Amino acid sequence: MLTNKQRTALRSMANGMETIFSVGKNGVTPDVTAAVADALAAREMVKISVLNNCETEPREIAETLAGRTRSDVVQVIGKRIVLFKKNPKREGIAI
């Protein structure tokens, strides 16, 4: 669980990040979940875009992915989602 101070720091870091995943009309499939989990292990923080043809709300997608990958939702703004998961095996983002 992230504190407000940690979430604020992560939000500022996420501003310059590129979106590396898109969720479309199929929603959160097992393949999307696996890809996000792998990216979180490598990067610790990922930005995801929800396409216009997706019928599921971005907040619901964020909560689903966070639950499946055991990560934290940093923010959901419009159709953009940022997730964070600390990787104890590497020195990455210091929060």
Description:
The mean pLDDT is about 90. It is built from three helices and four strands; from the N terminus they run H-E-H-E-H-E-E. It has a four-stranded mixed β-sheet, with helices on both faces. The protein is globular, with a radius of gyration of 12 Å. With about 100 residues, it is α+β, with helices and mostly antiparallel strands. The chain has a single domain, classed as 2-Layer Sandwich (Translation Initiation Factor IF3).
Q: Secondary structure elements and their pairing?
A:
Layout (H helix, E strand, L loop, with lengths): L3 H11 L6 E3 L6 H14 L1 E6 L7 H12 L2 E6 L2 E5 L11
Parallel strand pairs: 1-2
Antiparallel strand pairs: 2-4, 3-4
Short description:
It is built from 3 helices and 4 strands, in the order αβαβαββ.
- Give the low-confidence spans: none
Query: Number of helix segments?
Result: 3
> Largest sheet, if any?
4 strands, mixed
The span between the termini is 12 Å
CATH H-level superfamily: YhbY-like
What is the CATH third-level topology name?
Translation Initiation Factor IF3
List its salient traits.
95 residues, Translation Initiation Factor IF3, four-stranded mixed β-sheet, 39% helix
